[in-house]
Design brief:
Dihydrodipicolinate Reductase, domain 2, about 350 residues, 2 domains, alpha/beta, nine-stranded mixed sheet, about 25% strand, globular, 10 helices
Length: about 350
């Protein structure tokens, strides 16, 4: 094995961790060192499915680190377990890729930030895999290049009937706490604008199979005066949206429409009559090539950060802003009024 190959442990393999274990060998410069899970049954099942030998399956992270000499841990356990596992991984001198969301409380997220500050030589990434989609890059490039003029507002709609079972269906604010951060992070990344204030209302449809609130309507004020109108539901009826949802970025000269699956389209106002649109032109955005997408690109970005001796793009200080959008929306819904994002980021 080349010394340039990073050895990766996947911690928590019952859900997205299984996907990570399949992705790791597909990215140049990375090798799956082993699987770690406290549930012996899950560990055995996934290990057998993926062809991972018994000697590379572990129920203890410290033992896995000792036996495999891994240098990266991917933490894919339930959200409330992220803090203790990040702490242990740093103590074992591992770099960390942590699944989103960062934690299940703002207090734990800030504690993770403190751990990162105490271990500056360790690289830490939150995997925001929705960023690494060619269409997302295309939209981001178009807005940055001024193709829609001055960005004014964003409309985002996400609706899917998602059945998970287990701990997610017991969460109090499952949509805002677990899923919406994908979309909130995209809003920041695509536009380059940061959240200032939020007003939100969450609820649970009468037919929902979730114990807590599976739907929410959220209004964000972003820097530069950009407004965001977001609606999401994980117990939806009717036609489902894609996982990225359906979004519209509206500017002074044009708008970008994206359904989350097809290539995004620039809709430009060609002719206007006293301010009224009379003719529109639709132009497909150029889609850039990427070496990897999704989870694989997250791993690729970690590799680049290690080579360049920098923190990954979605490091703790960046991701805290996306996480704070989620927690502030939950706080607003519970209080019944607006919440300033800065209020949550103070230690």
């Amino acid at each position: 094995m080349s010394s340039d190959v990073h050895r990766v442990l996947v911690v928590g393999v019952g859900g997205i961790g299984c996907g990570w274990a399949q992705v790791v060998p597909s990215v140049s410069g990375f090798e799956l060192a082993g699987l770690v899970d406290i549930d012996a049954g899950v560990l055995a099942r996934v290990g057998q499915e993926l062809g991972i030998p018994q000697e590379r399956r572990f129920q203890d992270l410290a033992l896995a680190r000792e036996r495999t000499q891994a240098d990266i841990a991917i933490i894919a356990v339930p959200n409330h377990l992220h803090l203790p596992l990040v702490r242990q991984a740093f103590e074992l001198r591992l770099h960390v890729i942590c699944e989103k969301p960062l934690a299940d409380t703002m207090e734990d997220a800030l504690r993770i930030r403190q751990l990162c500050r105490e271990h500056p030589d360790r690289k830490f990434m939150v995997s925001q895999n929705y960023r690494w989609h060619p269409s997302v890059q295309a939209i981001r490039n178009a807005i940055a290049g001024g193709q829609i003029g001055d960005l004014g507002y964003i409309h985002w709609d996400f609706q899917r009937p998602s059945h998970f079972g287990g701990w997610r269906e017991e969460m109090e604010d499952v949509l805002l706490a677990d899923m919406a951060i994908h979309h909130f992070d995209l809003i920041r990344y695509i536009t380059g604008r940061e959240p200032v204030r939020v007003v939100a209302r969450s609820f649970n449809p009468s037919w929902s199979w979730y114990r807590g609130r599976a739907a929410a309507s959220v209004l964000f004020e972003m820097t530069g005066g950009v407004e965001v109108n977001y609606f999401g539901c994980w117990a939806a009826r009717g036609r489902p949206t894609s996982w990225p949802g359906e979004s519209r970025f509206v500017g002074s000269q044009a708008a970008i429409h994206w359904d989350g699956e097809s290539d995004p389209v620039l809709v430009r106002y060609v002719k206007e009559d006293q301010g009224h649109e009379v003719e529109l032109e639709e132009i497909p955005l150029p889609i850039p090539e990427m070496p990897y997408t999704g989870l694989a690109y997250s791993l690729y970005e970690m590799g680049k950060a290690l080579v360049e001796d920098r923190q990954p793009i979605t490091w703790i200080e960046d991701n805290l802003l996306s996480f704070a959008m989620s927690r502030a929306a939950i706080a607003s819904s519970r209080r019944g009024g607006p919440v300033d994002i800065a209020e949550l980021l103070s230690p």
